[in-house]
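Q: What structure does this chain adopt?
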Amino acid sequence: MASESVTEENNSDVSNQPIEEIKSLPSYLEEMEPPLKKSEVDLKNPELYINRELSFLQFNWRVLQLALDEDLPILERIKFIFIFSNNLDEFFEVRVAAHVHTAIHDEDRRGPDGLTSNQVLSEISKTCHEMVEEQYRIFNDVLLPKLSENGIHFLRRAQWSDSQSEWIKNYFIDEVAPVISPIGLDLAHPFPRLINKSLHFIVALEGKDAFGRNSGYAVVHMPRSLPRIIQLPDEISGSGESFVFLSAIIHANAEELFPGMTVKGCYQFRLTRDSDLFVDEEDIEDLAHALKQELQSRDFGTSVRLEIADNCPDKIAAFLLQKCNLTEAELYRVNGPVNLNRLLSLTDMVDRPDLKFRPFRAATPKEFDEENIFEILKEKDILVHHPFENFDSVINFIKSAASDPNVLAIKQTLYRTGSSSPVVDALIDAARAGKEVTAVVELRARFDEKANIELANKLQDAGALVVYGVVGHKTHAKLCVVTRREKKKLRHYAHLGTGNYHANTAKLYTDLGLFTANKKLCEDAQKVFLQLTGMGKAYDMKLILQSPFTLQSGLFELIDKEIANKHLGKKAYIKARMNSLTEAKIIEKLYEASQAGVQIDLIIRGICCLRPGLKNISENIRVVSIVGRFLEHSRVFCFANDGNEMVFASSADWMDRNLYHRVEVCFPITDPRLAKRVRQECLDYYLKDNSQSWELSSDGRYFKMVPGDAKPFRVQRKLLEKLSNY
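A:
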């Protein structure tokens, strides 16, 4: 692929003066002649808002389209099929399950878009059936043939040679049959309790068994320990590398499980259940213990979706729906493996660098090559842009604190870190070295609850103080504060980020991390920890905006100032980047800014409930979404501020949960040099992208941007070339 470049121009001015403090913004409305009048348009009109769930499905559709992008290597294209499948699983487990619950218990409840849960579920069913059909069409008709062209073959049963069939039968006898337990359905063996998202087969049988039973059906559960794709040995593989699906092996050998009986049909199926956890935090004494108890039941929540093989007879499908307490609308017939996301292992099984993304080596900022990072931070802030720059800088910052005899304390938030975390290992070393280590571990990070309970126990065993945050508010802020004794005084150093302290996802997600010794920023970060571990009124912050206290109101003030400046003829614009935009009050305020003539550019990877391009409402708002090699995860906000530009990074999206129900931080980039860099790399470059960018129209649909006669520009590749060793 051709390399790309772009002129590193400034689209706006950046003041040479650092931001010292967020002061109370002036009331321009009182100074204006004539005064501002509120628009006559009802900005709460449900027609102005896109449904959150349908917007997510639009995002997942964009992910699926990457599987068709011929500019990407084939083993990367097929990954997006698996990612699409995994996204859809979580969507059903959490969002669809929530609407099912609401439809039963609060039928008339409506979101900003005015739809009830029953209406939303109907639209989800219609959209998802179309998307799943397209997913399997791409998988079967586009990707598998393309893999075969490159010597990677998935063999159907009809294609097996005699030697392959013999090897597969022996594999079934030696590796599969010993670990599965077929369940014949009768009065003594009722329909089993199905585990969430596990692969099962329903087998139609004819004849009587040794005990005279002839119920006609059996269910076979596939343990998660069994691989879903199996590679054939080289000696029988033929040309290239050959694989078979576990489902094909089961189909071919089902009669081995029921000797003396006739298998009339064998059909794979999978049930998806509600997987959200609920604990009444105000009614428990031990949150970790309560979550452990709740985790045991996660696999058996309310049924929300049934996937079956597309050739399954209607009679058997109806039988399964009845046993799972589902309707025809919740049934998905699929032409291929029902659990495509489990096939992601293929990309690790095949050693074909020519069919994968060109590798790169993340750069390490030169400042981290110096002996004492704390001495450098006294002189200047350091910014790292992951994954283009190395996450090792974060790990080394904590390791330096752990080994520095002058460091007295380390405080750290942990939301998602992974089951084996170098960050946690560094904190354990610090605790064992006698440092005062405080870890705020968020046990309720969805699908990471078990791993977080385990790492909390490891930290406690090492002597660290572990707290679980605030009842009713997930701790989602990304903070680390180091306290060091210097010349008989204490000084704070901090790392503030947009992403989790997770060494693996830092290689795949785009995020920012700021290392600073800025006194006001560090003191603010220290206050956040005091609020999390202690009790008392909210602290006054000098620079940081914090949810659930000041983030929403602070954003309102910043937007209002742009509106006021626009009316005064001053420079006014807003550029913001985030994962999702759903909060109705923020959207309403952005509509107000657009009506005032403020140009607003939004880069929103996933869900966006705002409708851009509506005449007299949002015609000054543009929304784009970037999907590509890396998951776009940074949250960056920029306000013109009459030429004295203010640039912020944050852990928070503009969503209800982030603004009102989580502990989040939004911090200014106070160094003008770094503010300019953040604006350019995280906003301006993204708004220039014409190759992996999608633009949102007012009807809620996204349209892929194409270079046309312009030079192709892919922002992620530009950042690889600029920042990493690529």
